[in-house]
Amino acid sequence: MTYKVAALYQFVSLPDFQDLKEPLHRLCADLGIRGTLLLAHEGINGTVAGRPESIEAFVRELTSGALFGGRLDNLELKYSSATEMPLRRLKVRLKKEIVTLGDPNVDPTERVGAYVAPADWNALLEAPDVVLIDTRNDFEVEMGTFEGAIDPRIKSFSEFKDFVGSNLDPKTHKKVAMFCTGGIRCEKASAYMLSRGFEEVYHLKGGILKYLEDVPQPQSRWKGDCFVFDERVALGHGLRERSMEPAADGSDE
User: Does the keyword Secreted apply (predicted)?
Assistant: First the structure.
């Protein structure tokens, strides 16, 4: 059997996020879906897996069903497949943030950096004045990254603020490009950097996963594999499985 995996997120105001936990869990359970979904006042984030028809029904409910009432109208979705169920259990968690930066003044629903489509990413990287930053954790960077990217050497995303404060200056670093697994960390990181006075901030739309899906390997600037938060552990170009050791439970936080 082939399972369909959906990585998803959207920054959107959800003042009723606590009330959404139980019906969202029930929806997934009824469809036989496993994975982890995070809910917060700022939106939804997670990775789930199930039979293809179950994932399709789940996404229909999120985007056009009564549960979210049409609020998930810009849901970022990336699909891949697995030959075995890659997620161990089902969890819906309530959080302060759907990706933890730790700055309550940063609001990606108001302002983020400029999106760069995967097809245009290589051209941006060729600009001589671009500072390229990998916003992921150090163990993820070790598995693979883009040529010439700076590794902030962080253990968790909440340390990104300290990296920026110690290593980057808006007066010196005029053009910053960032990337992450699926795009969510970069949305919040770009919002943070704009709030700190950086003027030109770019991020890869759809993240590394979308780049590996869209850009042919001969034209790719990616080196290595991309860590994913499930038992497949890593994906390569074309989002092919690179199974190694069992990993986490499906949340890219």
Answer: no
